[in-house]
Amino acid sequence: MLYGFAIKYKDVLLDVESGSNLTMEWYSTVFNESELFRGSYSYPVDLKWSEKNLTALNFANVLANRLARISVEVSILLFDHTWKSAIMEVEVEDQRLPATLLIDNSIISDTIKDNTLPDMFSYYDGTSKKYSTISMGTTEAEIRAHMLATATNPSAYSYAFPSMTNFGLFGERDLSGNAWINSFNWEDPTVTGAYQLSNIGFYCPTFYLVWLIEEICSKMGFDAIGSFLSHPEIRTWVIYNTGYYTGAEIKADGFALVPARHFPKITVSNFFKILRNDFKLFIYFDSLTKKAHFDISDRILEKESSLDFTEWILDRSMKIKPVKDKAFRIVTAVDDGDEAYKYLSYTKSKRVGLGSDLKAVELAVGAPFMNSGIFTGTLPSPLRQIQTAQTANIYDEQYGETTGFNKKGEISVNEFGFRVFSFRGLLPNSLSEPTWRIPYGTSDNRNALGVVQAAWISTSINGDNNWLDLLCGQFYKLLTLTETVEFNARVPADRFMEVTPMNLCSVSEASKVKTAFLPDRITFEPGKNNVQIYTRVKGYAFHKVFGLLDPGLFELKSYEVVEPTEMAYVAWRWVDNRIVPGSGSEWQEFAKVEFSFYSDPYMMTPKAVSALEILYFYRREFGTGGVIDDPMSVTTGSNVKTHVTGELAIFTNVSGGNMRATIILLESPDKRYVPVF
């Protein structure tokens, strides 16, 4: 092997031009966050114009042999050892065969560059673009049983139907039963009682993030593996979306899910970039093993160094340089289409590091808000669940005149952001009724009863035990104290096989103290008749001296909090109802008015008020057609979230006729509250 490397196509070692060098370069994907997907490797090499090469390549030099010039899979050998598989593209010039080798991430670069996530679940039938489907059964009974099975055994399926609400699905506030998505009879969580499939109800499958990654990699010929994909908490994460089916659609003959409707419209390249940047993942497509690695950087930093370069460093080549960015402002992702962000407080950013010059790190993965579990629109029972206010994507023609409607062939005309939350299966939602269950999704670490679960990871950086702290904290520690380390080395060929962008390495110098570092860029060139490989290395040192400094510098702390405009939103309902029988068939019903106060018009977060005067009409509507509005007012106590009035007659059925009462909330003259209903 004259040049230290060889290219093997099928069983033929191709002839390489005399003096041709193969200079290769690796980039770590966890750094270089401004790049679309750094780590794409393509290398030029010159093949000889020889009879052996021309024969092996099916005479690619003949213009008519078009198929001979398609990309072919070859093996790259370093010192008689197979190092990588590669895709080789050959050009033809006068007596020359210049070629390009595509290795690792570059093999998938064309596929991920322009195709969106929905595109990955599409195909062409002739010239017509169609979308792949997933059957849930052929009868209504089978489909309902299937939907329940996704909740009772969530790990066996690629999607789930969590109970949630969307109070803006038609583009304006709607607190009616339409807002309840994936409505579920929690009092009877069985096949016969669970998902009712109301004709006008809306149902939305949420696909698991891990399944999506594995499916995309499989479509590109790779098996996805790694600590990110095997993490038990991350395996519960589902992708929020606004693609809705009606019960009527689901019950129609031939119904099937359309996965493309349920993913944000971002390119696969941006999808991988987002995963890398937000979760600080090492992503590496190994062209030899056909494995796609998705590893959490914190897990790699917890390991011992796998490769020590000390003995191979060339004299006087070591350089240690400071880095500019030592403190970071990590900004939460906001879905502009969700009205909830206008009314609810949330952590806008967190900070970590040394100094006040903060580098902004814009997150792209967000999390939906959780309902407080106090009250949920007009539903008869409070529920802890995902709650949004966002225009939906509806495909049933009975909603053809609404802002949510998508015409035939359209996908997600109302775009939604990339947000994730956890699906926890069927969980108890009532202390007093232990048999009740709800298909529970959450973006925090509390169960359906509101009890903290220590092992759960919150998908919102607002929450306790959140992913930013638990999955990326160690990596941000590295960045606050790191320095760049650069050196040249001659690495033995047999050890070079251990050099990958996925390992923690180490180096020591005169002090003999071993210092770990993460490789950022490795450039290498097999030498002629040399069993060592000349390598240029750049990495980031991992200095484990955190205990010598203020530990608070390395904690991710809340930095900016968004507080909505100070306003109370008021809702009312009848409580403490009682019926008083009269003579014969006569009877009366009495109840009290409960006013409840919220920070938002969707009643997601209760709000404490003090000395708030509420104006309203006590309206009585009589069977004769008459209406009487009695003006009333109450003033709340101090720091209260509800206020209950005295008793009123709300229905009478007497010989003189019947009466039905309701409450009409009036506008606040001093603008201290806004009526909801």
Describe the structure in your own words:
There is one protein chain. The protein is mainly beta. It folds into four domains: 5-106; 118-267 and 365-463, no CATH class; 300-323 and 474-559, Elongation Factor Tu (Ef-tu), domain 3; 568-675, Immunoglobulin-like (Sandwich). The chain is built from eleven helices and 41 strands. Strands 3, 20, 21, 30, 31, 32 and 33 form a seven-stranded mixed beta sheet that branches. Strands 38-37-40-39-36-35-41 form a seven-stranded mixed beta sheet, with no helix packed on it. The protein has a six-stranded antiparallel beta sheet with strand order 2-1-5-6-7-4. A hairpin with a 7-residue loop joins strand 31 (505-507) and strand 32 (515-526). The longest helix is centred in the last third of the chain and has 15 residues, at 467-481. Mean pLDDT is 88; it is low at 376-380.
Quick structural summary:
By secondary structure, this protein is mostly beta strands. 13% of the residues lie in helices and 35% in strands.
Q: Helix proportion of residues, in percent? A: 10-25%
Mean pLDDT: 88
First-to-last CA distance: 82 Å
Main sheet properties: 7 strands, mixed
Q: Unreliable segments (pLDDT under 50, ≥5 consecutive)?
A: 376-380
Give me the secondary-structure topology.
Layout: E1 5-9, E2 12-13, E3 24-27, E4 40-47, H1 51-56, E5 72-78, E6 81-90, E7 97-104, H2 109-114, E8 122-125, E9 128-131, H3 140-152, E10 159-160, E11 164-166, E12 180-181, E13 202-203, E14 206-207, H4 209-219, E15 223-225, H5 227-230, E16 237-239, E17 243-246, H6 247-251, H7 268-279, E18 281-286, E19 291-296, H8 297-301, E20 307-308, E21 319-322, E22 327-331, H9 340-343, E23 346-353, E24 359-362, E25 369-370, E26 386-388, E27 393-394, E28 420-427, E29 438-442, H10 467-481, E30 483-492, H11 493-496, E31 505-507, E32 515-526, E33 532-542, E34 557-562, E35 568-581, E36 587-598, E37 613-622, E38 627-635, E39 642-654, E40 657-665, E41 673-675
Parallel strand pairs: 11-26, 15-19, 17-27, 20-31, 22-24, 35-41
Antiparallel strand pairs: 1-2, 1-5, 3-32, 4-7, 5-6, 6-7, 8-9, 10-14, 11-12, 13-17, 16-28, 18-19, 21-30, 22-23, 23-34, 25-26, 28-29, 30-33, 31-32, 32-33, 35-36, 36-39, 37-38, 37-40, 39-40
